[in-house]
Structure formats: structure tokens, C-alpha cells
Amino acid sequence: MTVAEKSARKFAKETPLGKKRRARRINRILAEVYPNAKCELDFETPFQLLIATVLSAQTTDIRVNATTPGLFAAFPDAHALAVANLGEVEELIRSTGFYRAKARNIVKLANDLVEDYDGEVPQTMEELVKLAGVGRKTANVVLGNAFDTPGITVDTHMGRLARRFGWTKETDPVKAEEDIAALFPTKDLTLLSHRVIFHGRRICHSRKPACGACPLMTLCPSFGIGELDPDKARAMFKYEMAPLA
């Protein structure tokens, strides 16, 4: 039996209460490992965060952060972006990928904000998801980080890790969000999202997680699916977790 099979068997008969307790212990450990976990998109206003989050689809936050200063210098608010030349917007965001579709979305989004909300970003899920290019993930990012309304951000990292942790089996983001949220106090949801996303970007990678140096190894049903050698695993760490050269 492999290490991964043993890990899965260890938690196979876990009770719902046991799962909740384990999930909350994982959150406490992640809080210690990532005390500075936060939204990694740079923004100064709710409008900037909304646009940056739309642009972050299919690219990295690092790429978006390199792009948005020029975009916001040219179009600092919804009123300015709503009347922008589409070609100019495309050129400014080209490096984020899918730039034609993204440019159409954010210009349409700006028009929606101007027409329906006098250029201001609405503060409810129901209103946000009606805007061009905005789904629940984007809405939760904005609500949690611009308006302090707790919510789960089910991006690729959160979805992947939640399934590895056994918090959900769902691949549908809305269903996964419901499963994850049921395990935690509502007030914890935004920071939980940041911590799990930090962990997914730094240690629990998609193709080969750094299992052998993971602080959650005794709590994870998926322990063993990645690199088990501690030294090799530590060498896989990313961002500020990476070993110093």
C-alpha cells in the first residue's frame, strides 16, 4: 500500500464532526504558517479590485499587478473606463491573455456600473454577479477584501486543496463553496480563502505537491501524492517560502 493510499484510508471513516474539527485545525495551522496571507492583487479602491479580479482569469496575480498601474492611470474609475477606446484598453491589458474578451468585459462592466450604480461598485452578491464578467468567485473577492463581507473564493487553488483535504468532492465551484463554508464560522471565510490559496501557490502545487515538507501532512487525506523526501520537497517551495539561494 502506498503512502497516499494509507493517508486516504486514515480518514475514510471520518465523521462529519471529525471533518469539521480537522478542517478548523488546518485553518489554525495555515494561520501560523501564513500570518500575512491576503489578497495578492494590488488595489486602492473597490473598482480597482473588481477590474483586477476580472483580469486575473487564466493568468497570475503577478502579471495582473504589472498591468493594472498603466490601466488605472489611463482609466482611474468606472466613468473613464466606460467611454474608453476598446483598442487602447486591449493594448494596455494584452499581457494578461484573452485580452480582447477581457477588454470587452471590463468596458461593459464599467458601463454597467455607470448606468446602474453611478459608477460605484455594489456591495451585494446579487448585484455583483449581474455585472459583465463577474461570477461568484470575483464577487466574493470584492466583498471580502473591499467591503469586509466574508466569503469563500473558490479559485483553482481553493478547489484543488479543498478536494485534497477532503472538505468537498465537488468540482462545481458553487457546490464546493457551500461544502467548505459549512465547516467554518462565517467570520473566518475570507482569511481562510487567502490562507488556502497561499498554500496552494507555495507548497501544495497542482502537478506535484511538496508533501514531504508540508505542515499539514498529518491532517491531509492526500498526503503522499507528491514529493515525500523532505529536502526535495522544501526545494519546491515558491514565493517567500522558497529556500534562499
TrEMBL record:
[4Fe-4S] cluster binds at residues 204, 211, 214, 220. Transmembrane segments: none annotated. Residues 55-202 form the HhH-GPD domain. It holds the Pfam family HHH. It comes from the Bacteria. Its EC number is 4.2.99.18. DNA repair enzyme that has both DNA N-glycosylase activity and AP-lyase activity. The DNA N-glycosylase activity releases various damaged pyrimidines from DNA by cleaving the N-glycosidic bond, leaving an AP (apurinic/apyrimidinic) site. The AP-lyase activity cleaves the phosphodiester bond 3' to the AP site by a beta-elimination, leaving a 3'-terminal unsaturated sugar and a product with a terminal 5'-phosphate. Belongs to the Nth/MutY family. This is Endonuclease III. It comes from Brevibacterium metallidurans.
